[in-house]
Write a structure and sequence with these properties.
By secondary structure, the chain is of the alpha+beta class. It has helices at 3-14, 30-33, 43-56, 153-157, 308-316, 319-344; strands at 37-39, 61-72, 79-81, 86-92, 99-105, 112-116, 120-125, 134-140, 164-165, 168-169, 179-187, 194-201, 214-222, 228-236, 243-252, 260-271, 274-289. It starts with a helix and ends with a helix.
Length: 346
């Protein structure tokens, strides 16, 4: 049975709220089931496509989706829900540098917000309905102006599945220093073209990053979507990670779009009781232009005061702060010279 036939069945089993047709909206797999044509791996074109997606995919965009997490106790065991479905709202600014992620269980209103702006990143929560938002985490921008926030990073990175592997830029999978072999096969014509890439990597014992535990696998790419990743099946070094295999399948909103419509992740692990598979399913059911302003990405938008750290940083960004510092420095130098002059008087 082909994957295009299985997709609606999987969607029905998982209770996706999205129309089932979205999971099968990618080009027909029958184009790839026949004899493909071997071709050199077009690394330059692929990397340029992924860079374009990273830079432009979510400019000034509002996305609403539903997250479900399930677990298979064994290959033939029943699904065991780990979480009730959650509604996620993602908001991105014009450049995609600032983001806002609201998360709510299906039975409640939003109770978690994760955000990043040019000055800081934060997490706020609602402890109970009688209290307002409470600051749970805060991180100030570094000296280089960058904010690296791990707050719910997986739920942010999940949307970047067209150009990421395991929350890393996909290009890192094909690091020339670790790549041992790579082959590509093209099937289909024009908009239905699908390029299957098989690769092998050698171990990087010095690295402790997840991505360097990937030994090899298969990735399928869609050239018409700037080489967006349709799906992958990767092997992981079991001596370095509990996970032994990771799989991802992604369908897209429209024929030329690289914005996901449905995303499915699987993490397979070996346990004493047999293999366990954790599965994430995200259905994207709304994509539209964002109407948020720059202020909406800040804490005061939720009635939460900014910590002193952010105030200190904004103070330093003002020109008069540096004039004040220069004035204080000049006064100190004047006092020092005056003191030295007095010591020289007999």
């Amino acid at each position: 049975m082909s994957r295009s036939i299985l997709a609606p069945l999987i969607a029905a089993a998982l209770g996706l709220s999205l129309p089932l047709s979205l999971l099968a909206q990618a080009p027909n797999d029958s184009a790839a089931s026949g004899s493909g044509v071997p071709r050199p791996f077009p690394s330059e074109q692929v990397f340029e496509g992924w860079q374009f997606l990273e830079t432009n995919l979510f400019d000034k965009c509002h996305i609403r989706g539903t997250l479900r997490t399930l677990q298979f106790a064994s290959a033939d065991g029943p699904d065991k829900p780990l979480k009730i479905p959650s509604t996620c709202h993602w908001e991105f600014d014009q450049d995609g540098d600032a983001f806002l992620l609201k998360v709510a269980p299906a039975v409640a209103s939003f109770n978690q917000v994760f955000a990043r702006n040019a000055r800081y990143a934060f997490e706020i929560q609602v402890p109970n309905e009688k209290k307002g938002w409470k600051l749970a985490d805060f991180e100030k921008a570094a000296h280089d102006g960058k904010v690296t926030s791990s707050a719910h990073q997986q739920l942010l990175d999940v949307l970047h599945c067209p150009h990421q592997v395991w929350n890393y830029p996909a290009q890192r999978v094909f690091d020339a220093g670790l790549l041992e072999a790579v082959t590509a096969i093209s099937a289909g014509v024009g908009p239905n073209e699908l390029v299957t890439v098989n690769f092998q990597r050698r171990r990087n014992a010095a690295s402790h990053e997840r991505i360097d535990s990937i030994e090899g696998g298969e990735i399928r790419l869609e050239p018409r979507r700037h080489w967006a990743i349709r799906d992958f099946d990767l092997r992981v070094d079991p001596s370095r990670r509990q996970v032994t295999r990771i799989r991802q399948t992604c369908s897209y909103q429209a024929p030329e779009s690289a914005i996901p419509a449905a995303i499915q992740f699987e993490f397979e692990s070996e346990t004493p009781n047999g293999p366990t598979v954790n599965r994430w399913v995200i259905a994207i059911d709304e994509v539209k232009p964002s109407t948020l302003t720059e202020r909406d990405y800040l804490l005061p938008a939720f009635g939460v005061a900014e910590p002193p750290l952010s105030g200190t940083m904004s103070l330093m960004n003002k020109g008069w702060f540096w004039l004040l510092q220069a004035g204080i420095f000049a006064v100190l130098i004047g006092l020092l010279l005056r003191h030295r002059a007095k010591r020289r008087i007999p």
